[in-house]
Design goal:
This protein is mainly alpha-helical and 446 residues long. 48% of the residues lie in helices and 7% in strands. It is built from 18 helices and 11 strands. It has a 3-stranded antiparallel sheet. A two-stranded parallel sheet has the order 1-2. It has a two-stranded antiparallel ribbon with strand order 3-4. β1, α1 and β2 form a beta-alpha-beta unit. α16 packs antiparallel against α18. The chain is globular and about 70 Å long.
Length: 446
């Protein structure tokens, strides 16, 4: 029997309660091939619809509806959830997210103590920018939930205690929201594959941890996804997963999922951890967002506003990265395209639309490059960009190392681990940009 491990799992006595509850929902658990160490009916928005009607002026998204239900049924302390619908499942969820960076920013903005708040100042700019966007999403959902509770007094009257103190209620909602954001999985419920409401929480399956490269379960596409149609049944068909094709899962071994081909920046912001496969001196996989450096480069020039407008019109503004894949480091096509246009303007005091046409031809695929001189210019800028990031990364790594043994940090068991995660983020920036710089200096074509 293989086992699914969860670093934040509830005490083992809740596992039988969860199985007993799942049996009442129609799941056969007698021959279950996994166990919890330390289903068939997923808590999705469709199942919550009868509890929280979606009609009226304040309809809720799936994310908002599920997190609302967790919010008002959060267990107190070490007790079990009193929710009559999903209590045994909610009782198995993590009880706190103190180590997640969203918690740091939520609590600091509410004036509440957070052991991780000082670490916000150590984050790479691109990671901090992504965290701010995540916080914006959280705030939008929290505002929608509060508006819903205000408009639906018969619901909010049951949970007035959760709304008395706005700071505490925001913190409670952050717990609920993070449980959904870190544990939900894609599940086809709507007619469109891109519908944001195609998500669910799934008992037992959501215990599975992430692995970037190791053996893991692989989800089987549903008929709705294969044929790109709405699910035939109200909540679709059950999940199916394939075990690794090239290895066998031994008894007692952990079963993994791959959360997706995400860069460490995304894993850190969305899930609160990073892949730790980085060597100290070389890298085979990694990505660095250079938005802040390139944006300053472009906008500090007198033509910056015009360049930005063209890039926005053509869909090339932002999302500029350096990356390393299979040992080959290079700038993204979006970054190359932006730098080529920037240097068209830098090299010309006045520029007409006809002078920009070679750039348009390149993005249309009818021309290989703007000019030899333009290629040299944007590559020189790329080296400068790399030097800027390398200098900043080296300084931050030194600072993180020298500040790592504070009394405050020793009082929080997870802080040294999280500090090392941030070091990994900076180390990735250092190694990727160094590799890209070396390839550029070598005269490699991208």
């Amino acid at each position: 029997m293989a086992s699914i491990l969860n670093a934040q799992s509830s005490p083992n006595y809740r596992w039988p309660k969860l199985l007993a509850w799942l049996r009442t929902q129609g799941m056969k658990t007698d021959d279950l091939l996994v166990e919890c160490k330390e289903t068939p009916r997923q808590p999705s928005s469709l199942l919550f619809a009868s509890l929280y009607p979606t009609s009226g002026p304040t309809p809720l998204t799936a994310m908002q509806m599920i997190s609302l239900h967790l919010y008002v049924n959060r267990p107190h302390g070490s007790e079990d959830s009193l929710d009559p619908h999903y209590g045994p499942y909610i009782s198995t969820l993590p009880r706190q997210f103190d180590s997640h960076p969203l918690t740091w920013i939520v609590r600091s903005k509410s004036g509440m103590e957070s052991g991780g708040a000082p670490l916000l100042g150590y984050l790479p700019p691109s990671v901090h920018a992504s965290l701010v966007k995540l916080h914006d999403r959280f705030c939008q959902d929290w505002a929608a939930v509060r508006a819903y509770l205000t408009a639906n007094s018969y619901v909010s009257s049951k949970y007035d205690a959760y709304l008395d103190n706005i700071d505490d209620s925001t913190s409670n909602y952050a717990w609920a929201w993070l449980n959904v954001n870190t544990r939900c999985i894609y599940y086809r419920l709507k007619a469109s594959r891109e519908d944001p409401d195609n998500l669910t929480l799934c008992p037992i399956l959501d215990f599975a941890n992430h692995t970037p490269n190791g053996p893991h379960m692989t989800p089987v596409p549903s008929e709705a996804d294969i044929w790109d149609t709405a699910p035939v049944k109200l909540i679709g068909k059950g999940f199916r997963f394939l075990s690794p094709a090239d290895v066998s899962v031994q008894e007692g071994k952990e079963i993994f999922l791959a959360y997706g081909a995400h860069p460490n920046r995304t894993l850190f912001v969305e899930y609160g951890f990073v892949n730790k496969s980085l060597d100290e001196v070389e890298i085979t996989e990694g990505e660095v967002d250079v938005q802040d450096v390139v944006e300053s480069l472009i906008l500090d020039h007198k033509s910056g506003a015009f360049v930005k407008s063209i890039l926005e019109d053509e869909g090339y503004w932002g999302d500029w990265t350096l990356y390393c894949s299979a040992g080959s480091a290079q700038p993204s096509w979006r970054l190359i395209t932006a730098l080529r246009l920037h240097h068209l303007f830098v090299s010309n005091n006045t520029i007409h639309h006809s002078a920009i046409q070679p750039w348009y031809d390149v993005i249309a695929g009818t021309r290989e490059m703007v000019s030899d001189g333009n290629e040299l210019a944007w590559k020189e800028s790329l080296i400068t960009i790399c030097d800027t990031i390398i200098t900043k990364a080296q300084a931050r790594l030194d600072t993180l190392k020298s500040d790592s043994d504070s009394a405050e940090e020793r009082g929080h068991g997870w802080l040294p681990w999280m500090r090392e995660n941030i070091r990994t983020l900076w180390r990735e920036e250092l190694l990727v940009t160094t590799a890209v710089k070396q390839r550029t200096l070598s005269g490699d074509n991208f």
